[in-house]
Amino acid sequence: MSYLKAAQRQNGKFLNPVPTHFTSGRDMLRLLPEFLFGRRKREPQPPLPHFRTEKHWYNQPPESGMRITWFGHSSLLMEIDGFRLLLDPVWSHRASPIQFAGPERFFPPTIALSDLPPLDAVLVSHDHYDHLDETAVRGLADRNVRWVTSLGVGKYLRRFGVPAERIQEMDWCDRLKLTSTRTGAELELISLPSRHFSGRSLFNRFGTLWASFVLRNAQRNLYFGADSGYWPGFAEIGAEYGPFDLTMLEIGASNPMWESIHLGPDRAAEAHRALRGKVLFPIHWGLFDLALHEWREPSERLLQLAPQMGIELWMPRPGSPTEFQGMPMQSDWWRQPSAAAQRTVTELLTAGG
């Protein structure tokens, strides 16, 4: 049985590639006291320093050909052999439909949207507020770049100001070849199934598609997992499209009650191996309080698992454009560096230009 096929619908709603359990309202009510009163352990204490991305750092291309700036959670700027791709950009203060309530950022955006370097494309994996952000879309809508997203999500991009002719929606297993108008560099995107859901309210769940993506060119083969629970399709993706130089998989916002739609560190490690990944880049953590675990727990747990499972990790500091050379790297930024130490790092990066 192959899991790699176009998305299916039932009664007008998209279906997951395998049967998937969703937490009931009664289950969520049981968790409500912990949500309300356990907040302190789920947020950095003391607050994190203000990580910064200086725009002039992008004046020079990466020596290795590939550089990634992780802005926290699942927001990334990937420079891949001359092609610049921005993934799931979230710049709002809260991952919420309203900006006076909901999960707040642990640290401000590391760079203004207007200071981002010229882009070739923006990829939005699905419509949840921690991946599709109105502030970011409106701030980038007047740039002459391609917008790539999953089926149905284009309506939000158009509502937020992106011209329809610049939007490409993808079904599972669709392929799209992009060419940079700046450099002529090429990048192929392949949209693949993931095990998750969609919806920007309680009343429109499953109305748009969610997906993971292969990003590749002649030199690189990368996997962006976006949001997904564990499922047998990881092994099929690895067999069909792997091995991957880098897998970007979610480790945060996890809980045993919703393990069918989120990985967490243990399942991310298993997925990485099933995908035939060489190096694992953990994403979807470190910026918002979206679950019940202590905020550093996903990263610390993954650090325990990695040597036991023979997994190499790539864990950059937020906001720092970091070259990926196929080797593991760990910054330990979440272990509360002092403001003075952060200033020293910024000064060193600035001097290195």
Please provide a written account of the structure.
The protein has 353 residues and is α/β, with parallel strands linked by helices. The chain has helices spanning 25-37, 134-140, 154-159, 233-241, 264-274, 297-309, 339-352; strands at 9-10, 13-14, 66-70, 76-80, 83-87, 121-124, 146-150, 167-170, 175-179, 186-192, 212-216, 221-224, 244-250, 277-283, 312-315, 322-323, 329-330. It has a single domain (25-352), classed as 4-Layer Sandwich (Metallo-beta-lactamase, Chain A), CATH 3.60.15.10. It is built from 7 helices and 17 strands. The strands form 3 sheets. It has an 8-stranded mixed β-sheet with strand order 9-10-11-12-13-14-15-17, with helices on one face. Strand 4 (76-80) and strand 5 (83-87) form a beta hairpin.
Provide keyphrases for this structure.
single chain; 353 residues; alpha/beta; Metallo-beta-lactamase, Chain A; eight-stranded mixed β-sheet; seven-stranded mixed β-sheet; globular; disordered C terminus
Order of helix and strand elements from N to C terminus: EEHEEEEHEHEEEEEHEHEHEEEH
- By DSSP (H or I, 4+ residues per run), the number of helices equals 7
In whole angstroms, how far apart are the ends? Answer: 51 Å
- Percent in helix: 10-25%
Domains counted in the coordinates: how many?
Answer: 1
Name of the CATH architecture: 4-Layer Sandwich
Give the mean pLDDT. Answer: 92
Oligomerization status of the protein chains: single chain
The level 1 CATH classification is Alpha Beta
Mass-distribution shape: globular
In what range is the share of β-strand residues?
15-25%
